[in-house]
Design goal:
By secondary structure, the protein is α/β, with parallel strands linked by helices. It has 16 helices and 16 strands. The radius of gyration is 21 Å and the shape is globular. It binds guanine and zinc ion.
Length: 440
Protein backbone atom coordinates (compact mmCIF):
# COMPACT_ATOMS: atom_id res chain seq x y z
CA UNK A 1 0.00 0.00 0.00
CA UNK A 2 1.40 3.44 -0.86
CA UNK A 3 1.91 6.03 1.83
CA UNK A 4 -0.60 8.85 2.26
CA UNK A 5 0.54 12.21 3.56
CA UNK A 6 -2.14 14.51 4.98
CA UNK A 7 -1.13 18.13 5.28
CA UNK A 8 -3.04 20.68 7.38
CA UNK A 9 -3.34 22.13 10.85
CA UNK A 10 -3.09 19.13 13.18
CA UNK A 11 -4.46 18.99 16.72
CA UNK A 12 -4.23 16.09 19.15
CA UNK A 13 -4.38 15.88 22.95
CA UNK A 14 -1.86 14.46 25.42
CA UNK A 15 -4.11 14.88 28.47
CA UNK A 16 -7.06 16.84 29.92
CA UNK A 17 -6.52 20.59 29.29
CA UNK A 18 -6.93 22.39 32.62
CA UNK A 19 -7.43 25.83 31.02
CA UNK A 20 -7.35 27.35 27.54
CA UNK A 21 -3.74 28.32 28.27
CA UNK A 22 -2.69 24.77 29.13
CA UNK A 23 -0.63 24.39 25.95
CA UNK A 24 1.24 21.35 27.27
CA UNK A 25 -2.02 19.40 27.12
CA UNK A 26 -2.03 19.18 23.33
CA UNK A 27 0.08 19.17 20.18
CA UNK A 28 -0.92 21.71 17.55
CA UNK A 29 0.97 22.24 14.29
CA UNK A 30 0.09 25.20 12.05
CA UNK A 31 1.71 23.41 9.11
CA UNK A 32 1.42 19.85 10.28
CA UNK A 33 1.24 16.48 8.62
CA UNK A 34 0.43 12.84 9.19
CA UNK A 35 2.00 9.97 7.33
CA UNK A 36 -0.33 7.01 6.95
CA UNK A 37 0.76 3.52 6.03
CA UNK A 38 -1.33 0.33 6.15
CA UNK A 39 -4.11 2.04 8.08
CA UNK A 40 -1.85 3.49 10.76
CA UNK A 41 -0.32 6.84 11.53
CA UNK A 42 3.40 6.18 11.21
CA UNK A 43 4.62 9.76 11.58
CA UNK A 44 3.11 12.99 12.92
CA UNK A 45 4.58 16.45 13.36
CA UNK A 46 5.50 19.38 11.17
CA UNK A 47 5.02 18.97 7.44
CA UNK A 48 8.73 19.60 6.90
CA UNK A 49 9.70 16.73 9.21
CA UNK A 50 7.01 14.26 8.24
CA UNK A 51 7.37 14.75 4.48
CA UNK A 52 10.98 13.55 4.69
CA UNK A 53 9.79 10.19 6.01
CA UNK A 54 7.36 9.51 3.17
CA UNK A 55 8.08 6.61 0.84
CA UNK A 56 8.38 6.61 -2.93
CA UNK A 57 5.13 7.54 -4.72
CA UNK A 58 3.51 9.02 -1.63
CA UNK A 59 0.04 10.44 -2.21
CA UNK A 60 -0.22 13.90 -0.62
CA UNK A 61 -3.58 15.38 0.29
CA UNK A 62 -3.40 19.06 1.11
CA UNK A 63 -6.10 19.91 3.63
CA UNK A 64 -4.77 23.38 4.42
CA UNK A 65 -6.18 25.56 5.96
CA UNK A 66 -8.45 23.02 7.62
CA UNK A 67 -8.03 21.34 10.98
CA UNK A 68 -7.03 17.67 11.18
CA UNK A 69 -8.13 15.88 14.36
CA UNK A 70 -8.60 12.33 15.54
CA UNK A 71 -12.00 11.00 14.42
CA UNK A 72 -14.77 11.55 16.95
CA UNK A 73 -15.93 8.73 19.20
CA UNK A 74 -19.58 8.28 20.19
CA UNK A 75 -19.72 6.13 23.31
CA UNK A 76 -23.48 5.45 23.52
CA UNK A 77 -25.86 5.28 20.58
CA UNK A 78 -28.77 3.07 19.50
CA UNK A 79 -28.51 2.17 15.84
CA UNK A 80 -32.09 0.78 15.62
CA UNK A 81 -33.48 4.16 16.64
CA UNK A 82 -32.83 6.06 13.40
CA UNK A 83 -36.58 6.14 12.84
CA UNK A 84 -37.28 7.02 16.48
CA UNK A 85 -35.22 10.21 16.63
CA UNK A 86 -37.46 13.30 16.84
CA UNK A 87 -40.49 11.51 18.31
CA UNK A 88 -42.58 14.07 20.12
CA UNK A 89 -43.60 14.52 23.67
CA UNK A 90 -42.76 11.92 26.26
CA UNK A 91 -40.50 11.22 29.18
CA UNK A 92 -38.22 8.19 29.16
CA UNK A 93 -40.54 5.30 30.06
CA UNK A 94 -43.43 6.54 27.85
CA UNK A 95 -40.99 7.22 25.06
CA UNK A 96 -39.61 3.70 25.26
CA UNK A 97 -43.07 2.11 25.32
CA UNK A 98 -44.69 4.37 22.74
CA UNK A 99 -41.97 4.73 20.14
CA UNK A 100 -38.81 2.80 20.85
CA UNK A 101 -39.84 -0.74 21.64
CA UNK A 102 -42.36 -0.92 18.74
CA UNK A 103 -39.71 0.41 16.35
CA UNK A 104 -37.12 -2.08 17.54
CA UNK A 105 -39.49 -5.01 16.84
CA UNK A 106 -38.89 -4.33 13.12
CA UNK A 107 -35.34 -5.61 13.54
CA UNK A 108 -36.69 -9.16 13.62
CA UNK A 109 -36.31 -8.75 9.88
CA UNK A 110 -32.60 -9.11 9.09
CA UNK A 111 -33.04 -7.21 5.84
CA UNK A 112 -34.30 -4.17 7.76
CA UNK A 113 -31.32 -4.43 10.11
CA UNK A 114 -28.89 -4.47 7.20
CA UNK A 115 -30.45 -1.40 5.64
CA UNK A 116 -30.43 0.61 8.86
CA UNK A 117 -26.91 -0.51 9.81
CA UNK A 118 -25.64 0.78 6.47
CA UNK A 119 -27.47 4.08 6.78
CA UNK A 120 -26.38 4.45 10.39
CA UNK A 121 -22.68 4.05 9.69
CA UNK A 122 -23.01 6.37 6.70
CA UNK A 123 -24.52 8.98 8.98
CA UNK A 124 -21.84 8.53 11.62
CA UNK A 125 -19.05 8.96 9.09
CA UNK A 126 -20.74 12.02 7.55
CA UNK A 127 -20.67 13.60 11.00
CA UNK A 128 -17.01 12.82 11.62
CA UNK A 129 -17.56 9.94 14.03
CA UNK A 130 -15.22 7.05 13.31
CA UNK A 131 -15.98 4.79 16.28
CA UNK A 132 -19.21 4.11 18.14
CA UNK A 133 -20.36 2.08 21.10
CA UNK A 134 -23.70 0.91 19.79
CA UNK A 135 -26.76 -0.81 21.14
CA UNK A 136 -28.33 -3.12 18.57
CA UNK A 137 -31.85 -4.50 19.05
CA UNK A 138 -32.60 -7.68 21.00
CA UNK A 139 -32.35 -9.67 17.76
CA UNK A 140 -29.00 -11.33 17.13
CA UNK A 141 -29.45 -10.61 13.42
CA UNK A 142 -29.37 -6.87 14.11
CA UNK A 143 -25.93 -7.21 15.68
CA UNK A 144 -24.75 -9.41 12.84
CA UNK A 145 -25.92 -6.81 10.34
CA UNK A 146 -24.12 -4.09 12.28
CA UNK A 147 -20.84 -5.99 12.49
CA UNK A 148 -20.95 -7.01 8.82
CA UNK A 149 -21.36 -3.41 7.77
CA UNK A 150 -18.75 -2.14 10.23
CA UNK A 151 -16.22 -4.81 9.23
CA UNK A 152 -16.70 -4.07 5.53
CA UNK A 153 -15.76 -0.45 6.27
CA UNK A 154 -12.88 -1.47 8.56
CA UNK A 155 -14.32 0.70 11.35
CA UNK A 156 -13.50 0.13 15.00
CA UNK A 157 -16.92 -0.26 16.57
CA UNK A 158 -18.12 -1.77 19.81
CA UNK A 159 -21.65 -3.18 19.76
CA UNK A 160 -23.91 -5.62 21.47
CA UNK A 161 -27.19 -7.36 21.06
CA UNK A 162 -29.45 -5.93 23.74
CA UNK A 163 -30.48 -8.40 26.44
CA UNK A 164 -34.06 -7.78 27.63
CA UNK A 165 -36.52 -10.38 28.87
CA UNK A 166 -39.39 -8.48 30.54
CA UNK A 167 -41.44 -5.27 30.68
CA UNK A 168 -41.51 -4.81 26.92
CA UNK A 169 -43.54 -6.22 23.98
CA UNK A 170 -42.93 -9.85 23.02
CA UNK A 171 -41.31 -8.83 19.74
CA UNK A 172 -38.32 -7.39 21.61
CA UNK A 173 -37.88 -9.99 24.32
CA UNK A 174 -35.30 -12.75 24.65
CA UNK A 175 -34.87 -15.14 27.58
CA UNK A 176 -32.00 -15.38 30.06
CA UNK A 177 -30.70 -18.41 28.16
CA UNK A 178 -31.16 -17.10 24.62
CA UNK A 179 -29.68 -13.72 25.58
CA UNK A 180 -26.64 -15.51 26.95
CA UNK A 181 -26.34 -17.92 24.01
CA UNK A 182 -26.76 -15.23 21.37
CA UNK A 183 -24.20 -12.97 23.06
CA UNK A 184 -21.72 -15.86 23.24
CA UNK A 185 -22.30 -16.70 19.59
CA UNK A 186 -21.67 -13.07 18.63
CA UNK A 187 -18.49 -13.03 20.68
CA UNK A 188 -17.12 -16.11 18.96
CA UNK A 189 -18.13 -14.88 15.54
CA UNK A 190 -17.23 -11.21 15.81
CA UNK A 191 -15.13 -10.21 18.78
CA UNK A 192 -11.62 -9.47 17.56
CA UNK A 193 -12.54 -10.02 13.91
CA UNK A 194 -10.78 -7.11 12.22
CA UNK A 195 -11.57 -4.10 14.35
CA UNK A 196 -14.89 -5.38 15.78
CA UNK A 197 -15.61 -5.51 19.51
CA UNK A 198 -18.63 -7.12 21.13
CA UNK A 199 -20.16 -5.50 24.23
CA UNK A 200 -22.26 -7.35 26.80
CA UNK A 201 -25.48 -5.31 26.68
CA UNK A 202 -28.23 -5.79 29.28
CA UNK A 203 -30.50 -2.88 28.29
CA UNK A 204 -31.27 -1.80 31.87
CA UNK A 205 -32.50 -3.33 35.10
CA UNK A 206 -36.17 -2.70 34.30
CA UNK A 207 -36.12 -4.91 31.20
CA UNK A 208 -33.90 -7.66 32.64
CA UNK A 209 -35.11 -10.21 35.18
CA UNK A 210 -32.77 -11.13 38.04
CA UNK A 211 -32.04 -14.36 36.11
CA UNK A 212 -30.95 -12.39 33.07
CA UNK A 213 -28.85 -9.99 35.15
CA UNK A 214 -27.15 -13.04 36.59
CA UNK A 215 -26.39 -14.30 33.07
CA UNK A 216 -24.99 -10.88 32.13
CA UNK A 217 -22.73 -11.07 35.20
CA UNK A 218 -21.61 -14.53 34.13
CA UNK A 219 -20.67 -13.18 30.69
CA UNK A 220 -18.70 -10.34 32.29
CA UNK A 221 -16.77 -12.86 34.40
CA UNK A 222 -16.21 -15.17 31.44
CA UNK A 223 -15.08 -12.37 29.12
CA UNK A 224 -13.35 -9.77 31.31
CA UNK A 225 -11.81 -7.95 28.35
CA UNK A 226 -15.22 -7.14 26.84
CA UNK A 227 -17.08 -3.90 27.45
CA UNK A 228 -20.39 -3.99 29.29
CA UNK A 229 -22.97 -1.29 28.59
CA UNK A 230 -26.28 -0.42 30.18
CA UNK A 231 -28.39 2.52 31.40
CA UNK A 232 -28.33 3.98 34.91
CA UNK A 233 -30.26 6.72 36.76
CA UNK A 234 -31.66 8.54 33.78
CA UNK A 235 -34.89 9.80 35.33
CA UNK A 236 -36.77 9.66 38.61
CA UNK A 237 -39.62 7.37 37.50
CA UNK A 238 -37.10 4.89 36.13
CA UNK A 239 -35.12 4.94 39.38
CA UNK A 240 -38.25 4.41 41.50
CA UNK A 241 -39.44 1.51 39.35
CA UNK A 242 -36.00 -0.12 39.40
CA UNK A 243 -35.85 0.08 43.19
CA UNK A 244 -39.31 -1.55 43.35
CA UNK A 245 -38.14 -4.39 41.10
CA UNK A 246 -34.94 -4.93 43.10
CA UNK A 247 -35.98 -4.13 46.71
CA UNK A 248 -32.92 -5.84 48.18
CA UNK A 249 -30.53 -3.37 46.46
CA UNK A 250 -29.30 -0.27 48.32
CA UNK A 251 -29.93 1.88 45.24
CA UNK A 252 -29.95 1.67 41.43
CA UNK A 253 -26.15 1.39 41.13
CA UNK A 254 -26.17 -1.40 43.70
CA UNK A 255 -28.50 -3.43 41.45
CA UNK A 256 -25.72 -3.63 38.87
CA UNK A 257 -23.02 -4.07 41.55
CA UNK A 258 -24.84 -7.11 42.95
CA UNK A 259 -24.59 -8.86 39.60
CA UNK A 260 -20.90 -8.01 39.15
CA UNK A 261 -21.53 -5.49 36.39
CA UNK A 262 -19.35 -2.62 37.66
CA UNK A 263 -15.79 -2.32 36.40
CA UNK A 264 -13.26 -0.56 34.21
CA UNK A 265 -14.93 -1.71 31.01
CA UNK A 266 -18.45 -0.90 32.18
CA UNK A 267 -20.27 2.01 30.56
CA UNK A 268 -23.30 3.47 32.32
CA UNK A 269 -25.42 5.61 30.03
CA UNK A 270 -26.77 8.79 31.68
CA UNK A 271 -25.81 8.34 35.37
CA UNK A 272 -27.53 11.63 36.14
CA UNK A 273 -29.18 11.29 39.54
CA UNK A 274 -26.47 9.58 41.56
CA UNK A 275 -26.10 9.76 45.32
CA UNK A 276 -22.60 10.25 46.71
CA UNK A 277 -22.58 6.58 47.61
CA UNK A 278 -23.38 5.59 44.04
CA UNK A 279 -20.76 7.95 42.61
CA UNK A 280 -18.20 6.46 45.01
CA UNK A 281 -19.16 2.95 43.89
CA UNK A 282 -18.71 3.90 40.22
CA UNK A 283 -15.41 5.62 41.00
CA UNK A 284 -14.03 2.78 43.14
CA UNK A 285 -14.76 0.25 40.41
CA UNK A 286 -13.38 2.43 37.58
CA UNK A 287 -16.79 2.39 35.85
CA UNK A 288 -17.59 5.05 33.27
CA UNK A 289 -20.50 7.52 33.45
CA UNK A 290 -21.67 8.40 29.94
CA UNK A 291 -22.95 11.95 29.45
CA UNK A 292 -25.67 12.22 26.76
CA UNK A 293 -26.65 15.90 26.79
CA UNK A 294 -29.01 16.16 23.80
CA UNK A 295 -30.94 13.14 25.03
CA UNK A 296 -31.08 14.33 28.63
CA UNK A 297 -32.50 17.67 27.51
CA UNK A 298 -34.87 16.21 24.92
CA UNK A 299 -36.41 13.68 27.32
CA UNK A 300 -36.25 16.16 30.21
CA UNK A 301 -34.23 13.64 32.19
CA UNK A 302 -31.97 16.02 34.10
CA UNK A 303 -28.60 17.74 34.15
CA UNK A 304 -25.43 15.62 34.28
CA UNK A 305 -23.09 17.25 36.78
CA UNK A 306 -19.93 16.92 34.71
CA UNK A 307 -17.63 19.20 36.70
CA UNK A 308 -18.71 17.82 40.07
CA UNK A 309 -18.17 14.27 38.86
CA UNK A 310 -14.73 15.20 37.57
CA UNK A 311 -13.55 17.13 40.57
CA UNK A 312 -15.01 15.16 43.49
CA UNK A 313 -12.60 13.43 45.84
CA UNK A 314 -13.32 10.15 44.10
CA UNK A 315 -13.64 11.34 40.50
CA UNK A 316 -15.68 9.54 37.88
CA UNK A 317 -14.39 8.48 34.51
CA UNK A 318 -16.62 10.30 32.02
CA UNK A 319 -17.46 9.71 28.38
CA UNK A 320 -19.71 11.75 26.07
CA UNK A 321 -22.25 10.43 23.60
CA UNK A 322 -25.20 11.25 21.36
CA UNK A 323 -27.66 8.57 22.58
CA UNK A 324 -29.51 8.76 19.26
CA UNK A 325 -32.56 8.27 19.08
CA UNK A 326 -33.22 9.72 22.58
CA UNK A 327 -30.44 12.07 21.54
CA UNK A 328 -31.38 14.56 18.87
CA UNK A 329 -28.30 14.80 16.70
CA UNK A 330 -25.68 12.48 15.21
CA UNK A 331 -22.96 15.10 15.54
CA UNK A 332 -20.49 15.12 18.42
CA UNK A 333 -20.09 18.86 17.75
CA UNK A 334 -23.80 19.44 18.34
CA UNK A 335 -23.55 17.14 21.36
CA UNK A 336 -20.79 19.23 22.95
CA UNK A 337 -22.68 22.43 22.24
CA UNK A 338 -25.50 21.05 24.38
CA UNK A 339 -23.01 19.69 26.92
CA UNK A 340 -21.63 23.20 27.33
CA UNK A 341 -25.13 24.50 28.08
CA UNK A 342 -25.98 21.69 30.52
CA UNK A 343 -22.76 22.45 32.39
CA UNK A 344 -23.41 26.22 32.25
CA UNK A 345 -26.86 25.73 33.80
CA UNK A 346 -25.05 24.30 36.81
CA UNK A 347 -22.80 27.34 37.12
CA UNK A 348 -19.74 25.70 35.56
CA UNK A 349 -17.88 25.90 32.26
CA UNK A 350 -16.34 23.47 29.80
CA UNK A 351 -13.68 25.17 27.72
CA UNK A 352 -13.33 24.34 24.01
CA UNK A 353 -10.10 22.39 24.47
CA UNK A 354 -11.81 20.28 27.11
CA UNK A 355 -14.73 19.62 24.74
CA UNK A 356 -12.50 18.45 21.91
CA UNK A 357 -10.37 16.42 24.34
CA UNK A 358 -13.58 14.72 25.50
CA UNK A 359 -14.85 13.61 22.07
CA UNK A 360 -11.42 12.37 20.99
CA UNK A 361 -8.85 11.30 23.56
CA UNK A 362 -11.22 11.52 26.55
CA UNK A 363 -13.69 9.07 25.04
CA UNK A 364 -10.85 6.78 23.93
CA UNK A 365 -9.50 6.78 27.50
CA UNK A 366 -12.97 6.01 28.84
CA UNK A 367 -13.06 2.99 26.53
CA UNK A 368 -9.49 1.98 27.50
CA UNK A 369 -8.61 2.21 23.80
CA UNK A 370 -6.35 5.25 23.76
CA UNK A 371 -3.40 3.25 22.48
CA UNK A 372 -5.42 2.64 19.30
CA UNK A 373 -7.82 5.55 18.69
CA UNK A 374 -8.55 9.09 19.85
CA UNK A 375 -5.18 10.75 19.13
CA UNK A 376 -2.89 11.41 16.18
CA UNK A 377 0.00 9.66 17.93
CA UNK A 378 2.41 7.58 15.89
CA UNK A 379 1.46 3.91 15.90
CA UNK A 380 -2.27 4.52 16.35
CA UNK A 381 -4.97 3.61 13.85
CA UNK A 382 -5.63 6.25 11.21
CA UNK A 383 -9.18 7.37 12.03
CA UNK A 384 -9.20 11.07 11.28
CA UNK A 385 -11.60 13.97 10.78
CA UNK A 386 -10.91 17.16 8.82
CA UNK A 387 -12.90 20.20 9.95
CA UNK A 388 -13.59 23.43 8.10
CA UNK A 389 -14.80 26.29 10.27
CA UNK A 390 -15.64 28.27 7.13
CA UNK A 391 -17.96 25.70 5.58
CA UNK A 392 -21.16 27.46 6.62
CA UNK A 393 -21.81 31.13 5.66
CA UNK A 394 -22.61 32.21 9.23
CA UNK A 395 -19.44 30.51 10.46
CA UNK A 396 -17.34 31.97 7.68
CA UNK A 397 -18.48 35.44 8.69
CA UNK A 398 -17.78 34.81 12.37
CA UNK A 399 -14.34 33.43 11.46
CA UNK A 400 -13.39 36.95 10.31
CA UNK A 401 -13.26 37.95 13.98
CA UNK A 402 -11.73 34.75 15.35
CA UNK A 403 -8.15 35.17 16.51
CA UNK A 404 -7.21 32.03 18.44
CA UNK A 405 -7.44 28.27 18.12
CA UNK A 406 -9.65 28.16 21.22
CA UNK A 407 -12.11 30.58 19.58
CA UNK A 408 -12.13 28.55 16.38
CA UNK A 409 -12.84 25.33 18.29
CA UNK A 410 -15.64 27.01 20.21
CA UNK A 411 -17.17 28.26 16.97
CA UNK A 412 -16.94 24.75 15.48
CA UNK A 413 -18.70 23.36 18.54
CA UNK A 414 -21.34 26.07 18.73
CA UNK A 415 -22.36 26.33 15.06
CA UNK A 416 -20.75 23.29 13.45
CA UNK A 417 -22.40 20.11 12.21
CA UNK A 418 -21.92 17.61 9.37
CA UNK A 419 -21.32 20.46 6.90
CA UNK A 420 -18.16 21.37 8.79
CA UNK A 421 -16.77 17.88 8.29
CA UNK A 422 -14.71 18.13 5.10
CA UNK A 423 -13.28 14.65 5.09
CA UNK A 424 -13.10 11.57 7.25
CA UNK A 425 -10.47 8.83 7.11
CA UNK A 426 -11.27 5.38 8.43
CA UNK A 427 -8.26 3.11 8.77
CA UNK A 428 -6.39 5.58 6.59
CA UNK A 429 -8.88 5.54 3.73
CA UNK A 430 -11.07 8.50 2.73
CA UNK A 431 -14.58 7.59 3.80
CA UNK A 432 -16.72 10.72 3.47
CA UNK A 433 -15.69 11.77 -0.03
CA UNK A 434 -15.91 8.12 -1.12
CA UNK A 435 -19.50 8.02 0.02
CA UNK A 436 -20.31 11.15 -1.98
CA UNK A 437 -18.63 9.68 -5.06
CA UNK A 438 -20.55 6.42 -4.70
CA UNK A 439 -23.84 8.33 -4.40
CA UNK A 440 -23.15 10.46 -7.49
N1 LIG B 1 -33.07 3.19 28.90
C1 LIG B 1 -33.31 1.94 28.45
N2 LIG B 1 -33.35 1.91 27.11
C2 LIG B 1 -33.11 3.15 26.69
C3 LIG B 1 -33.01 3.75 25.40
O1 LIG B 1 -33.16 3.12 24.35
N3 LIG B 1 -32.75 5.09 25.38
C4 LIG B 1 -32.59 5.82 26.51
N4 LIG B 1 -32.33 7.12 26.41
N5 LIG B 1 -32.69 5.29 27.73
C5 LIG B 1 -32.95 3.97 27.81
ZN1 LIG C 1 -29.34 4.80 25.51
Amino acid sequence: MTDTLLRGRTLSFHRWPETVDDHAAYAYEEDGALLIRDGRIVAAGTYADVAKKAGEGVKTVDHRPHLILPGFIDTHVHFPQMQVIASYGAELLDWLNTYTFPEETKFRDAQHGRRIARLFLDEMVRHGTTSTVAYCSVHKASAEAFFEESHARDMLNIAGKVMMDRNAPDGVLDTPQSGYDDTRALISEWHGKGRQHVAITPRFAITSSPEQMDMAGTLVREFPDLHMQTHLSENHAEIAYTCELYPEAKDYTDVYARYGLLGKRSLFGHSIHLSEREADALSDSGSVAVFCPTSNLFLGSGLFDYQRYRSREKPLRIAAATDVGGGTNYSMLRTMDEAYKVIALQGEKLNPFQSFWQITRGNAEALSLVDRIGTLDEGTEADIVVLDAGAIPAMRLRMETVGTLAEELFLLQTLGDDRTVREVYVSGRPAKSDMATAAA
